[in-house]
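Fold this sequence, please.
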Amino acid sequence: MTTINGRTAVITGAGSGIGQAVARRLAAHGCPVALADWNEEGLEETAASIGGPVLTRKLDVRDRQGLMTFAAEVTEWAPAPLGLVFNNAGVTVLQGVADAAPEDDQWVFDVNFGGVTNGVTAFLPILLEQRSGVIVNTSSVFGLVGFPHQSAYCASKFAVRGYTEALRQELRGTGVRAATVHPGGVKTNIVVNARFRADHRGEHQDVQSAATAFADVARTTPEKAAEIIHKGIEAGRPRIRVGSDAVLFDLLARFAPNRYYDVIERLETLLRRGR
């Protein structure tokens, strides 16, 4: 197995959260990093915190041609062979299926799944040509279980999971690997930046209230998530679960596939009582 340390890493969604933490960690392990994000200010903050070689591009991952152009730029710029492509950009919307705004669902799917397929399309030929490297795509615990008022997010993350697992089989014998990341509750801005219509319990009137509640239950820091992801890639794991809650959700999906939400509701009740 080849280490990614010291090799060029491409990271989307690098302006905050997990993407930012992974960029900083890999740079500290000698990786030149090529970073993309729609959030230009966050991207600049990430770049400013990195001492080694860094390339940044403001980029919407829904733009396939933009990612193809970025891949060409990375190929020209890279001080070391490409070792990692981390398709990490993600968004969500909180709304019920019955009264969902279709344009919001489409936005989520285009960013979360379309962004992954665009990133793979752009960078996979480079990895195949050099016969080495890893593609890492961010799914979620909601790519393992369904959750109310997160139908579009769950659909996009289940799609990332299935797509990456199929890709992994296609890559047998090529020297290139593929892995899926399933974060649990990580303290990121995904809910702050969400589109909000209603939560499943009807407890929140706006996105800020929902974000505050999410911050209360999210246990894993982006830095810890980056450590888990980095170690998982180095160990060659095809599925990387981030956080104890991700491990729990995975086990529930495996051993109680028809009743996992009953268990989740009971656990939520116990957690509320314990506050």
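The chain has a mean pLDDT of 94. The longest strand covers residues 176-183.
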